[in-house]
Amino acid sequence: MYLRIILAVFVCLTLPAAAATYYVDSAQGNDSASGLSPAQAWKSLGTVNRHQFQPGDRILLARGRTWFEQLSVSSSGRADAPLLIGSYGIGQQPVIDAQGVRNRGVSVVGKSYVTLDDIAVQNSTSLSIEVFNSSHISITHCTVRNSKGTAIGVGGKSPDVRVDGCSYSQDPGFSTDGSFVSIFSPVDGAVVSDNQITGFTGRIAIAFMDVNNAVASGNNIDGGGLAIAINACSRNLTGGQIYRNVVSNTSTAQGDGEAIELTGHVGPPNAHCEQDKAHPFPVFTVSAEISHNRIQGGPHTFGGIDGWHAVNSRVHDNQIADVQKYGMQWTAGSTDNQFSGNVIRHCGVAAIAIYAGTGQGSASIQHNRLEDAGVGISADPRAQVSEDYNTISGVRALRSASIAAGSHTK
To answer: Which domains occur in the chain, in start order?
Structure first.
């Protein structure tokens, strides 16, 4: 009997606690209630911030309600039981409003296996949603509006972040100086997919900095200085995938005015990623596959797809139209890149340009359709470019003199 009692106690102590669901209602809740049913809902996010939750718990915010507070996630989940912060009821998404005075709407610091789903965050002065030194964080079906800085900022050591099915918008006259998603973290693995970014005025919509195996797919991006960038700041980057995105109206008024960019050596302006001219960084490279993207330029769109110290990359089956200068421009020693199956129309300077500069740029260009450009394929004398099986029409010059004509090019 005594042994059975001990075994029963041991089993009880080792079984995980059952996951609970907590409800929060800013209009009808009560912070003295249990929070365990809609009728016993908590009122404030402050109560949520102070509570220690268990893996698998769900914290649900009432739809149609607004909180003028910051949500600071207090607990972690597990791989098999993530902590969920979501919504319940009917009506519009629950809103966390920073009122233009708080620098954060939601903060996830030092946590793991947390999912933010189906909530809205607006009017932050800096980061609408912050993820720092946290792993396996998923941000899904959320709405961000009027973020003065970056809408979703990921920093520190934060592997395996996923941003999926979210949207970003700005009111007329509002301007941001940040990104929709900025992931500045020396980790392997980050996915930004199927998001809708409209009327964007920031410099880079989706920025991966120092991230290996970065994935950007299925995003619809309108506006901004640059739509998608993978930048190497402190190490060589490989495994990037940028595919099936739709990009329109990038503009030099906000930045480079290109749609997609791989940049080695020096990233975008940032105190941790600028080149120190007195003590220059070594050259770091970026390698990625860029495919099946549709890029529509506007009156201030400089170019389509750009590489700088970009190596061993495959750029294929993309559609680019109506850019002011270059459909694709790869420079500064970008080597061993392959361009195939792309359709590029209406480029002021060149459809595809490979400029070695002082480096050893090289490329294979095959089976592309290039129409209405200053030059079909352009290269400087240092670049080693082979082309064949391309269709080139409506250009002032088919190719630079340094490029041998492909025997099957039409």
So the answer is: 89-399 (2.160.20.10)
